[in-house]
Amino acid sequence: MIILFASFVILYLYFTYRVNNKNVFSFAMILGAISLVQVIGLAISTGTWQIEIDIRTVIIIAACLIAFLIGEQLAKHTRFRMSSHRKTNSNGFSYSEYVYTIKPYVIGLMSVISLVTLVLTYRYDVSVLSRAGYSGNILNILTFIKSAYNKFDTKLDTGTILTMLQIVDKAFAYICFYSFYNNRIVDKRYAKKKCLIPCFIYLVRVLLLSITRTGLIRLLIAIIVLIAFAQFTNSRGKTDFKFNRSAIRISVLLFLFLIFLFCFQQSLRRNENISDTILIYLCGSIVALNFYITEGVGSTSGFETFNILFESLRKRGFSVPNTEVVYPYAYWKSNFGITGTNVYTAIKPYMHDYGVLGAIFLYFLIAFIYRKAFDSCLRNNYIARRVAFASFVFPIFMLQYSDQFLNEVVQFSPIIHIFIIYLFSKFTVHTKPIKRTADSALTLGAL
Length: 447
What we know:
Blueprint: H1 2-19, H2 27-45, H3 55-76, E1 98-102, H4 104-131, H5 138-150, H6 160-186, H7 196-209, H8 214-232, H9 245-270, H10 274-295, H11 307-315, E2 330-334, E3 337-341, H12 347-378, H13 383-391, H14 394-398, H15 405-409, H16 413-427, E4 429-433
Antiparallel strand pairs: 1-4, 2-3
Helix pairs in contact: 1-2, 1-3, 2-3, 2-10, 3-12, 4-5, 4-6, 4-7, 6-7, 6-8, 6-13, 6-16, 8-13, 9-10, 13-16
């Protein structure tokens, strides 16, 4: 059955590649590539895990991936009318030359705020470790902060001030990075390295102090998307978005190193064999989904989607359905003992709440929404829109592991994020047009 699954994924990638005019920058291509990694993990696991993937699991995953591709293509070919004042290329996307400048005193002030946020976050992590019985130091934060946080039945409140500071810190770091990279393409005179100071401080906070290690992956994804916007929408950007080969190699090696480091850390914490830990994070979600579809393992009571939104509404006195956030573990035999995971892909909560057809439709809808939003960002020069999109594109990359869309994006918190991004871009960023001779316009036919 793994061979059948692998054959479908390879055909899916090839068909998607052809449909997108041989351009690899497509959300369907990204989802297919992630599925291919999972298939490779499943193939490796056959010598370690005693599992068998059911045909029903393969069919449901295949149907969701096809629905995702259809949703993206439909969104791609139903375009909005262009505003007459925007300069566009022959395909309707804007390539007006703009630089985004930020006053030095604003960068200095925000750097101080970022440092304050870093210190307060460190103190919060130390307090969580202390309450859980660990000593408070960087090594323990890196190793035990997640398990310490999970020891408490109720979610520990970071406090309104620290929460808002973290949102502000993230928003300004993203704006600074996009401003720097865009200006570097358009006119290097405006690419001030001091813009990277808040970015570096934010990176330190995410790398060392995040409760969840996915924070670093989210940051990496956001950087890739922001670079894509800068490349796509400037006439000096590369026309087919082929990154410098060295940059690609460095990014891939960095990503693989981070995955290995994370898996090594988890294997130490959970006292598991590291090869089992790596395979669990690569393809364990598919195995767990298979157990759910075939045996009902991991079933819960109540709604599994919108749980954060429903929790917020209940706190405000609304009568909403009960939600179940913590999934039971699915276990299976391994050559190294018993292993398992409680990550079931996004398909599982969608199936649980809305059935198989509901899960397929949600994959279609998510692809449609994100592609529309992406194209909308390409067609205008608003830095706030591009930064907001990069901040919330993470769920696309996580669909084959967990639901981040209905449980994280569709709630109140992103509204605050977007509002702060808008305020910063409105009052601290100066947008300046750069006049160019009509040399070479950016061609985006592959999109």
